[in-house]
Amino acid sequence: MNNSTIVSISGLVKRFPIGGGYFTALNGIDLTFGKGEFVGLVGPSGSGKTTLLNIIGSLDEPTEGSAIILGQSIGGLSHRLAARLRNEHLGFIFQTYNLLPVYTVYENVEFPLLLLKMPAPQRRKAVHDALDAVGLMAKVNSRPAQLSGGESQRVAIARAMVKAPEIVLADEPTANLDAKNSHHILQTMVKLNEAFNTTFIFASHDEKVIGYLRRKITLNDGKIISDEQIENPVHMTRMVSTVQGGAT
Question: What is the mean pLDDT of the chain?
Fold first, then answer.
């Protein structure tokens, strides 16, 4: 890997047992991702994009081939070391938000920092900075049931970003949002990507997401069909001046 490469995947195959045989979800994937990319794995349901995202996130491991994430081989990691990689270096955003309903917004965002045993004053500043970045300081004491879908996803973004991860993995992050909130969420992530040089990797078939990508990797039947750089993403002209404006 060169100095800017943070994900290197070579000859990746992933099979799942099914019945008396196997289903091949990924078949011979070769990819690299660099620092600060805003990239999407796109394709129809069953194309392998979520499986690939899970391997990058150390939630699964290859059947064959290699996946080296931030210098660590996923196939060779123990459960403890895989959890450490996730806790310290990776952020996750899911379509279902995965907020803890009994916790406040502050407590939901703080949770990853508790796992890192970060001292309380540092936690407080990091949580406030993350919530300020997504425009939700006014909701700091609210609980998830009191939030709109767009607000809930912004909390999920703050939680993913609070520990300043090198990589954020987003699996269909706009699936449960209307168009207005989808654009606001995506604009927020673009701004965070630009401000912190965090690598964002999406798995999505949503055209709204695809319209913001600077690199689009298309998969079908577990194989890469195309890998293209996007010089002028179609939705970048919709970018607003602040992450706070526009949607709830």
Answer: 91
